[in-house]
Amino acid sequence: MAFIEQEEINRIRNSANIVDIISSYVPLTQRGKNYFGVCPFHEDHSPSMSVSEEKQIYKCFSCGATGNVFTFVENFLNLTFAEAVSLIASKVGISLSMEIKSKKETKFKEEYEVMDFALKFYQNNLNTENGTKAIDYLKKRGLLEETIKDFSIGLAFDQNMLSNVLLKKGYSEKLLESVGLVSRKDDQVYDLFQNRILFPIHNLDGQVVGFTARCYLTEVTPKYINTKETVIFKKGNILFNYHRAKDAIRLFKEVIVVEGNMDAIRLYSIGIKNVVALMGTSLTKEQIEIFKKLRCKVILMLDNDDAGETATLSVGNSFEENHIPFEVVRLSGEKDPDSYVVKNGKEKMESAIQNPLSFVDFKLNYFKKNKNLNDAADLAEYIKAVLDGLKNTNDAILKEVTLQKLSKDYNISYAVLKEQLGITENEEKKKEVPIKQKVVKQSSYDKICSKILYYMMNDAKYIRLYKAKLGMFPTKEHRQIANEIVYYLEKNKSITLPDFISYAENSNLKEKIMAIIENEKELDLEEEGMLELLDIMKKRIKKEEINKLKAEIKEEYDINKKMALVEKMTELKKENEME
């Protein structure tokens, strides 16, 4: 996140009423002291998210989502924490005292500088007299001047112009190689991209990290050259056009996924702006996480050829396994969305997007390929493939409809199909239950520690009680969290739970801290309760010390040492009985 002072973060949070902010995204209804709404972080059908104006936190009783105003906006809009702070600051009329810069941006400052310079250099080339042929080529492809500017399309000439300029500016050959702008031959560097039109690739934050380069004067092989993977360009972490599309995706609650960069450019240029392109034909776990965080429906529209059909099955299976809602569009008559729009126009493309197939319907068609369904062996293979495909879905209605359709169309017993799918009578009777957060079973000791730490996060008086009555936890994990809380108080002079949540955003203990908040969210905070917990903890610690001494006494053969250990154990027992 950006290096914003904690004091400034707290000031912004204190100026923002969590009810006002969350209600601008999700309708809330007041019930007693709290407000309730449908939780946007899981498939919620009844209001299970509670927002406390008094505590300035929200929590979902179904999926476990919890946090303060910053974490809600961060997760709802898929922003970085720094972006969420900045957005809320603007909503409450506070100007940040500094420009937000990420650690990643600072770490790779020179790499991003070089790529940004290369982008401007290539753009300038396109607008020179020598760029006329390239512009003509782009216009023949149906790209308007506005689109060329929107996508920062550029041009590389056939000389080492870029590397010469960058080396003169003081950048090293090693740096230019590391970002994939140059190659080396016979101990000399030369521009990797020559006589090609350049389409820049941006990361999720909108920084240029690479290029796709297409030949245009003559058709040569390879037609496209891409930047190799570098320290700032990891293909599996990126969706092409994401930084432009994200606002439209949030607005429409839908993202269109295409295969090629030109497909995304074409759709964006005709006003279909919620479109991204895969950087390949398979999904990485990082890309899956991006789609999960978007929390919207996906329209999967890959190329209309055999490879695109196979990729649709593969990507669709990944979406299904990760419970990402999606549907499929298969365009007819043209190879890809780019050529489909050129031939048929915006209206037909919009119609295709508005009439998608379910993934099951896609698979019903896909598995029929190259099969003679009048042949018993082919039909059996087809039925088996369809049933295997159904096993990944939790949609009971979809399973029922598909089985009924197979039974009717191919005169196969419904009971046999159901048995092959593995549906039992008990499974059919199961009712949908709310998604429950996975809770790790805690020992009674862990539960006591968790409650004490939660008290401490809420008020300085509980931290003072902890320091006076206990001082430290015996286990490292709990000590670390307690130390973070004590440090926060010493630095900021006061503590509240929503402010400490903001501070925890930067901590490597964030997940453990948020788990404590989730586990103890219903705990009533009273001084008497804290004192009782501290007393129990002290007795537990002394009991453990006594047990440890018992073990040492049993193993000790020196009579003097044994007596000293017995005396020490007796003293501890007396203390425990007196408290």
Mind explaining what this structure looks like?
With 579 residues, this protein is of the alpha+beta class. The protein folds into five domains: 6-100, DNA Primase, Chain A (Alpha-Beta Complex), CATH 3.90.580.10; 105-233, DNA primase, catalytic core, N-terminal domain (DNA primase DNAg catalytic core, N-terminal domain); 237-357, Dna Topoisomerase Vi A Subunit, Chain: A, domain 2; 365-429, no CATH class; 444-574. Helix content is 54%, strand content 11%. It contains 27 helices and 15 strands. Strands 1-2-3-4-5 form a five-stranded antiparallel sheet. The chain is globular and about 95 Å long. The relative contact order is 0.07. The model is unreliable at 424-441 (pLDDT under 50).
What would the principal axes of the Cα set say about the shape?
Answer: globular
Rounded to an integer in angstroms, the radius of gyration calculated over CA atoms is 31 Å
Helix content: 40-55%
What is the distance, rounded to the nearest whole angstrom, between the alpha carbons of the first and last residues? 47 Å
Helix run count: 27
Tell me about the biggest sheet? 5 strands, antiparallel
How many structural domains are formed by the residues? 5
Residue-averaged pLDDT, rounded?
A: 87
Q: Which stretches of 5+ consecutive residues score pLDDT under 50? A: 424-441
Q: Helices and strands: which structural class?
A: alpha+beta
